[in-house]
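Before the break, one more example. Copy the sequence into your notebook; we will annotate it together after we see the structure.
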Amino acid sequence: MTIRAAYAERLAAGKIAPDLAQAAAVETLARLEGELNALAEPGFSFPFMKKKPRPRGVYLFGPVGRGKSMVMDLFFETAPVTRKTRVHFHAFMARVHGLIDQWRKGDAAARKAVFGQAKGDDPIAPAAELIADETSLLCFDEFHVTDIADAMILGRLFEALFARGVVVVATSNRAPEDLYRNGINRQLFLPFIALIREKMETVEVGGPKDFRLARLKGARVYFSPISEAAEAGFDRLWADLLDGQAETGAVLEVLGRKTRLPRAAGGLLRAHFASLCGQALGPQDYLALAGEFHTVFLEGVARLTAERRNEAARFVSLIDALYEGRVKLVVLAEAEPEALYPAGDGAFEFERTVSRLQEMRSKSWFEADDS
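Here is what the structure looks like once it is written out:
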């Protein structure tokens, strides 16, 4: 099945609605699919024959929840390539940092065992060679650069990967020019942006709204009290919105502090109350979270007492950030909003949070168009 056929099949089944921006992305990926298919055609190779040029990759960018990951996943499934890898960008960079560390700390024998070579001080080339030996098509989800260590590596790493014929497809919430914006020593990152423009065709996927969020309209989005039935309903809704997409996780970095969110998938986040409100996070963390995700599933929201006023205060900040960011919220809680924090320091201020939680579970909240 081609990507065009796979996309048409989802349209016919009513799983997605027609979207011109998605359709344009599909056509660009179909171009790449055809070029990859041509490379795989059987034939003879003679020294005097010109080598076919490597296909140009694709960089899909646009707001969260517009179907970029879905389209890329369809391409990955149908791409006529045996050695292909689909990975979340943060997971890929974690592995790259691990390979660099292994090269720097390993003796000749250890390097030989992992990389098949041992000479030299520069770890980028052997790391790129190892990756290129494993895969010829790399599909990245959530391409996002905030870490200076990543920024300083990327240019040389991708130059080496492209030189070895690796084709890259990526999704991102940001245009190439907006990557690592305002980052430290950003001028050193600019050649990488130029490399992306040269080696990858950029396509904006900026449809008006998230095609999956229609599934939330009319659905129960506040589950209380916590029971086996409530948990099952919460889980079913999460699985429905994932629609087969893998939970790849995400990392938010605010003021040099990293918050790991293991149950993230594109613009979707599932997190426990204890992980977001039970540790020392603040308004800036919650604002970053609201800017990164369009839908948050928050489970384990506790009935709070005066002794847990710090958690109540963080919950107030979290809901404020999600409300201002127009984030869609699905909650699994021990009690209804008005019974979550009835007494204690800040209980009066908590009344605003109760009002916002009631609004955020309303039909009108989920029917409002995404900006």
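The chain has two domains: 3-204, 211-367. DSSP finds 14 helices and twelve strands in the chain. Try to locate both features in your own notes.
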